[in-house]
């Protein structure tokens, strides 16, 4: 057992005990559990990584129980941590919902929409006029960002996120589960020469997002073993997309984000594969899930994304013989 926790249990019998931990500890732990890492929680709260880590450790000491453990992909909640996180998340959602109910309505409604940067820039951006027409008098505030908002403090009303379809956030609904494949520019292909197999991709300059996990998962599903992957790590899919266009290497993409550039011949799909790693999902603030504008936006996004993916699949089928470089998987 952790030494600090043992010390806490040994002294708590002799000291007055508060009914609940200090709020700053709870906020830090809630953000860490929601974001899956101390660093992302720090970005979410606008504080340093060390502040979040200290608050979480102090909370564990206060409660005399281990709440989080480190893992290769960030942090993982213990059984006790999951129980406590579910409770405080529900409490924060209740506060947000009650606040929204009691606050006097503004003359003009606002809908704050967050979206993953790649989809926001390449797919949703060109459709903003259509979406604004759909929402009517509701003012749209649109932000491209790759983290979940904190609905409890009103950061956003809706998030279009991307994640494991089998492990979506509580309250989220799946929008589309797109095919993901490697792309490169004609410039890079002319310089690098043809790739004879998917295994040859391991030696190519791969463009990664925040970490190399996405490419590792893609190779695993493709049945290709590899050692440590190389290549630059960029912050999000949009930056990776631009790097691929500039001829800097091979990026993973979907037809939703690269369809126009592939149609113009600026990007080329490498190999004919059918691998799906993650899904786009829709999640709304608990206080606004029954809002008419939110429901309309959800239905429109779900329909348009499914139509776009279906059209992309049809286009891919028609051009498979000439559009993809390499063998079929």
TrEMBL record:
Record-annotated HTH lysR-type domain positions: 21-78
Top-level taxon in the UniProt lineage: Bacteria
Organism (species): Aminobacter ciceronei
Transcription regulation recorded as keyword: yes
Family membership noted in the UniProt record: Belongs to the LysR transcriptional regulatory family.
Signal peptide: none
Residue span of region Disordered: 1-20
Pfam family, one: HTH_1
Keyword Ligase applies: no
Name of the protein: DNA-binding transcriptional LysR family regulator
Bias (Basic residues) ranges: 1-10
InterPro entries attached to this UniProt entry: LysR-type_TF_proteobact-type (IPR058163), LysR_HTH_N (IPR000847), LysR_subst-bd (IPR005119), WH-like_DNA-bd_sf (IPR036388), WH_DNA-bd_sf (IPR036390)
């Amino acid at each position: 057992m952790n030494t600090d926790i043992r010390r806490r249990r040994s002294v708590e019998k002799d000291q007055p005990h508060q009914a609940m931990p200090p709020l700053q500890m709870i906020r830090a732990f809630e953000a860490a559990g929601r974001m899956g890492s101390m660093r992302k929680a720090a970005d979410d709260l606008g504080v340093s990584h060390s502040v979040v880590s200290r608050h979480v450790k102090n909370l564990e000491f206060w409660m005399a129980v281990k709440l989080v453990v480190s893992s290769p992909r960030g942090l993982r909640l213990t059984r006790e941590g999951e129980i406590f996180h579910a409770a405080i998340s529900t409490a924060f959602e209740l506060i947000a919902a009650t606040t929204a109910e009691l606050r006097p309505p503004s003359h003009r409604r606002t809908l704050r929409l967050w979206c993953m940067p790649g989809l926001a820039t390449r797919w949703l951006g060109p459709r903003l006029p259509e979406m604004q027409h759909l929402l009517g008098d509701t003012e749209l505030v649109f932000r491209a960002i790759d983290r979940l908002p904190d609905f409890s403090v009103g950061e956003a009303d809706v998030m279009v996120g991307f994640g494991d379809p089998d492990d979506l956030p509580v309250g989220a609904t799946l929008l589309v589960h797109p095919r993901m494949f490697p792309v490169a520019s004609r410039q890079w292909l002319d310089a690098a020469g043809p790739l004879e197999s998917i295994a040859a991709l391991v030696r190519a300059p791969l463009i990664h997002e925040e970490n190399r996990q996405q490419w590792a998962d893609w190779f695993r599903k493709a049945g290709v073993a590899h050692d440590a992957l190389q290549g630059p790590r960029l912050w999000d899919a949009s930056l990776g997309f631009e790097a691929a266009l500039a001829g800097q290497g091979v990026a993973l993409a979907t037809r939703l984000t690269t369809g126009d550039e592939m149609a113009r011949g600026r990007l080329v799909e490498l190999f004919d594969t059918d691998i799906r790693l993650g899904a786009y999902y829709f999640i709304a603030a608990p206080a606004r899930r029954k809002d008419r504008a939110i429901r309309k936006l959800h239905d429109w996004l779900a329909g348009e994304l499914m139509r776009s993916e279906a059209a992309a699949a049809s286009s891919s089928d028609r051009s498979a013989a000439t559009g993809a470089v390499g063998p079929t998987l």
